[in-house]
Amino acid sequence: MQLFDLSGQVAIVTGSSRGIGRAIAERLAEHGARVVISSRKAEACTVVSQEINRRYGEQASIAVPASISSKGDLRALVDAANSAFGPVSILVCNAASNPYYGPMSGIGDESFRKILDNNVLANHWLIQMVAPAMCEARDGAIIVISSIAGLRGSPTIGAYGISKAADMQLVRNLAVEFGPHNVRVNCIAPGVIKTDFSRALWEDPDMKERVIGTSPLRRFGEPDDVAGIAVCLAGPAGRFITGQTLVVDGGDTI
To answer: At what angle do helices 122-137 and 71-85 cross, to 10 degrees?
Structure first.
């Protein structure tokens, strides 16, 4: 058995036009999976899909734009994946949003609901769309990208942290439900990764020093640091891991 062989697997990765999602999609394809690239903007998805196909073969990926806030878009995403490649066997729920920065006392209801809808409810929708086929096949891996924000309090991204903590509980519940069908459900909780999402932290020298000054590895993470864990969880190497949150933060939370 090849522990990291994903040949014959079909993967959807949301938010995969850049950053962590793109790295995960590229690494899944590198290990043999056929990957559906998805984010809100069609052009950005197409660019990533074309690059993957150039590197790994013309049938390695397709681009299907979708908004995680639209249940109809997500249904169309799954249908397109099924039509192009067959039943989805790997789902990576990476897309998320955080429209508010500040104390909980200042967040409006609309922003709070958007965070919960996009970061928790949308994951629930998408998982429920792909899980029946996984359970029928008695094989599948579901990965939700959470965050270390879900493990500790914050004076500025509290609502985001609440949504990411909810994702950790979501995978625990679903791991119990789907485990008897050999479907595994896990979270990855990254720390600060060098992406556009965290640009304000790693571009500012003073902020950079404050963030990584006490981190054991003394650096920010790279998208591939998360992608490697996703490949492990998606394939045979992760076949006895379910219901877990794997923290990928360079030791920051310790």
So the answer is: 30
Distance in angstroms (rounded) separating the CA atoms of residues 41 and 163: 24
Q: For this structure, is 160 an active site residue? A: yes
Catalytic residue among 56, 100, 101, 160: 160
Taking the C-alpha atoms of residue 167 and residue 119, their distance in angstroms, rounded to an integer, is 8
210-246 pLDDT, tens digit per residue, is 888 889 999 999 999 999 999 999 999 999 999 999 9
Residue found under tokens 């591939």 = 224
Q: In this structure, are residues 31 and 56 in contact, taking their beta carbons and an 8 Å threshold?
A: no
In order of start, what are the domains of the chain with their CATH numbers? 10-191+227-242 (3.40.50.720)
CB 110 within 8 A of CB 162: no
- 219 within 8 A of 161, measured Cβ to Cβ: no
Sequence-ordered strand ranges (E) for the chain: 10-14, 34-38, 61-63, 90-93, 140-145, 183-190, 245-248
